[in-house]
User: Fold these one by one.
Assistant:
Number 1:
Amino acid sequence: MRVDELELPTYDDLDAASDFHAALRELSEQSWIARGALGYAVFDHEAGNALLRDRRMAFPAIELLVLQGVTSGPIWDRNQNGLMGRSGEPHTRLRRMLAPAFTPRAAERLRPQLTALVEELWAPVQDQGRCEFVSTLAEPLPSRAIAALLDVPGDAPTLARWSVLLQEVFKMRLAEVGPQVEQAYAEVREYVVDLLERRRAHPGEDLASVLATAGEKITDDEAAILVSSVISGGTDTTTAQLAHGLRLFAEHPDQWQALREDPSLIDQAVEEVLRYEPITPFTARIAREDVELRDVTMPAGTVVFVCAATANRDPQVFEEPERFDITRDRGTSSVLTFGFGAHYCVGAYLARAEMVETFRYLAPRTPDLALDGEPVLGPTTGIYAVESLPLSW
Ligand code: HEM
């Protein structure tokens, strides 16, 4: 049966629901697939995993621009040729160039710098016993981590400014801010060309050196595209995940206490935060040819959103999935928070390292961590941000 001929529940008003997860759970209990204004959503782990890994499913980068009225020009060219916009060998080629800068070993190398950054950001608030966590740590840390990755520590504020503009592509506001985004692209390109020239003369181990000395010839445009993908992919995402993490611990004091008592739980604590509150609740795909799943045909052109928020709480995969429990034995089950398949998040090791170093540093220093007012949460489409998180300890 074709997906457009099925009778399906709809899922467009999730942000209006008082409890986003409860609304999703109810939907996922009715059907494994639902219909929305922009496409379909699939809820369970098995279906989500299969679609993310299916090479016939691409990321709808171009369709996202068309929806915003952009059909040519620099933003079009840039996204068509960007990491998310490419598929097949042209995509693999770009990924290969980035890969050496994103191995577990590369994340390990950055670890002491990450700890020092957390320490520096936390120092002004430690003795106050309270802070607004997003502006204190969650927001500044990721752009400083990317500045460390590029070995340009002084340039973090510029990277943070660019990241806001580069992210606009996903926010359906290009009609308003298109010229500023084009300006940011031009600035990033000029900056990257200059940086790579310096690294060719004096290579180090940073991301710019990796690109400058890549065996395969990289064009200036490709280098700029890769660096801008890293800036835009690695900033708001990690900010949101760090903030949701601290929110979850403030709401579950027994779990923070468990981590304080047994610091060896740190990796499990990070995985549980990633499972319980994925800040990319939906990851998009578009069928480039007809794709069949469970006797349902998704004709070429069908847009599908894989719902990590429900897949990560799929009772077939995770025992007592609604319980936030850092001691849970997850076996080999993986979360869908970083996507899967060809576009699997390049920065997953770095993001985890930022979370590990933040939780590891804060747990022993913030006994009785609690919410110090209501957190302000952003919309759940795109990146599910925390706009403000007042904490006390
Ligand atoms: C907790 C933080 C993060 C989350 C939840 C996250 C999530 C994701 C997701 C869901 C995707 C799309 C995967 C897919 O479509 O299958 C993605 C792609 C990507 N992420 Fe992340 N990300 C995070 C942090 C980072 C960091 C720190 C960086 C870099 C420094 C980064 C760079 C990228 C890039 C470049 C892509 C595009 C990969 C491609 O198209 O091949 N991300 N991320």
Note: The longest strand covers residues 282-287.
Number 2:
Amino acid sequence: MRYSRYLIPTMKEDPSDAVVSSHRLMMRAGLVRKESAGMYVYLPLGHKALRKIINIVREEMDNSGALEFLMPELTNADLWKESGRWNTMGPEMFRIKDRNNLEYALGPTHEEAFTNAVRSTVTSYKELPINAYQINTKFRDEIRPRFGVIRSKEFIMKDAYSFDVDEEGLDKSYQTMRSVYRKIFDRCGLATIPVQADTGNMGGSASEEFMVASEVGEETLLICESCSYRANQEKAVFKREEKSGSITGELEKVHTPDVKTIDDLVKHFSAESSKFLKSILYTADGETVMAVVTGDREINEIKLKNHLGCVELELASDDKIFEATKSPVGFAGPVGIKNIRIVFDLSVKNTFDAITGANEKDYHYKGVNPGRDFEIKEEADLVTAVEGDACPECGKKLSATKGIEVGHIFKLGYKYTKAMNFTFLDKNGRPANPIMGCYGVGVTRTLAAVIEQNHDEKGLMWPKEIAPFDVHIVGICKTEEDEKKIAEIYEEIKKAGFDALYDDRKNSPGIKFADADLIGLPLRITVGKSFFDTGDIEALDRKTKEIKRLQRKELVPYLKEFFGR
Ligand SMILES: [Zn+2]
């Protein structure tokens, strides 16, 4: 492609609204333009790179035996109502009505649509397993779109849904996708960190996220440098400290007017925050439940929800708190509470002479001891792990890092096939529900993540497999005669099977070199003064900055070696 016939509107200055490298460079190198908040136009160069990622995803999915579908992006409300998600998807789902007042959603995800498509075509165990996928646009009504294409209102995703006859089959499908994802991200030149993620009520190691470490990531990962433990903070567990101590005090009620928060308590009692037992009341599917954790820890509502196995979990209302504890908010504690379910965090049993609410306005207990003053009938891991906590596998310290999620694999179970009554006839001719897994790759997000990982102060540094072109030819000459000679080299490179961008513009060498650095194709070939003087062509590796001087006949063999083709 001749640069003069292509469209690459590079920018010298950083756009004012771009705070992350990928957004800044995608704008400056002419890959995208913003249409409006959270919506981007892919210009030819950006689209070409995106297509390469799509092709890699498609190739690897097809090789694994998955079947490509193309689903409507408009999804019928009836399907969402069947699964029960029409009311629970929240304001991030775009909902629209047609002229006949029928309701639809612009698909943010396609569990329902695929379950429906497969149930209408599969009737027997002989037709399973199936892994159905599509590469398509997804929509999300982001409250605050940001970071360019990383968090936008519409984006391209590959989403896949496996349907198996039993759990063993699901595990096989899941493991296949796990290795497919590694291949996809490797080929894109992206270093990902697979981390254990929250699995809802499924349990086990049934969910993994593929994360890219990045300062702009919105997820926190806890990583052990000594072993292979990696987990999303939502899910991460940690080894509890064995605390030794002994009961020294009697249970004593203390008057604590205007003392409500943990900070107030720490001041009032001049004790460490770990000495306090925080008791938080929730309504879980209508039932009032008390969760008790030590004062130095944040309660993890995802863990609590998974432990309780409830669908809806919210903080209890003031009325419910009064009903359960006979006191206003701020004075709840486990001592003397018999009428509601109480779940204790694993560290509570290791506290001695603790302080907690006395279930009476303006009073706390001190000298509280588990076992003596209240019974621990039910305990679970209820708190969020943080940097510095001990690794659950090896005991070394966990460190925290921010990450962007580019892929997610998940064992769904029977949730959708049961809710939507999808049955097949099993070996014995009896109806059974298939078991599902789902697997997503954020395609546009992968492009941004690759750029986050592969750039320097001058611009992009494309990994070879997804670079929009292989080589960038910079021609520098004064006469038409010389231009023809450069064009011959360009043709020769094309003929050898390499995709070349030939900068034939009448601009200064300085502008051409700056644009080549910014666009960042893997190899820059300069045909200029030294070629016309001595026959030397200069090849610059964009990533390593290594320069090779080649004679014309050495050029194609060098390209073959460089690209390994
Ligand atoms: Zn470890």
Note: The pocket of zinc ion is lined by residues 224, 226-227, 229, 391, 393-394, 396 (CB under 6 Å).
